[in-house]
Structures are given as structure tokens and as C-alpha cells.
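User: I'm preparing a small set of examples for a lab meeting where we compare how different chains pack in three dimensions. I only have the primary sequence for this one, and I'd like the structure in C-alpha cell form so I can line it up with the others. Please keep the answer compact; I'll paste it straight into my notes.
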Amino acid sequence: MIYEMRVYRCLPGRLPALLNRFATITLKIWEKHGIKQAGFFTTLVGESNQELTYFLAWESLADREKKWNAFAADPEWHAKRAETEKDGQIVANVSVQMLTPTAFSSVK
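Assistant: Understood. Below is the C-alpha cell output for the 108-residue chain.
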């Protein structure tokens, strides 16, 4: 199992819109494509409280490529994302890391 950590840095005041999009749209589309989330987090103490950090669980890099590409090309996702950004862009930038658990990790 590998894990993907994604950090979305929102434009000022736009974090609620991003959280709503995940809760009401994105997770349903991910389910359709077999994408498994492993946790979502907002920043309580840190550099910015306008960030969403989340983890995805993948069987392999090939599994990730297949499922993520299908999601990224999904016409429903494109339409819904555009609809949620009608009042302006939500995310300023995204940071992505692919992680593998250590031998002593509680997560395998």
C-alpha cells in the first residue's frame, strides 16, 4: 500500500467552499472511480488555517495512475468543479507527495 498526501492551500476565505465541495461532490465521484481516502485534516495550529491536508490509499502507483486519471477526465467532475468555482477560484496551489510506510508504521 502507498499513500498520497495532498495539501490544498486555499485563497483567503475559500476553505469553507473547498470543504463543502469535498463533502458534497468530490467524495461521491471518487467512490465511482474506486478512490479510497485515508483521512482529511484542517490545520488547527500551523503556518496557515486555510489548508486542507488529506491522504489517499493506493495499491500501487499503477492503481493510482489508472483511477486518478479516470477521475481527472470525468465530465461530471469538470462540470461540478466549474459550478463550485463560479464565485472565483478556490485553491491557490496543491502540494503532492507519494509516501510508503516504514517497517515500524502502524499503517501498512
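A couple of notes for your slides: The chain has a mean pLDDT of 96. Helices lie at 15-33, 61-73, 75-84.

User: Perfect, thanks.
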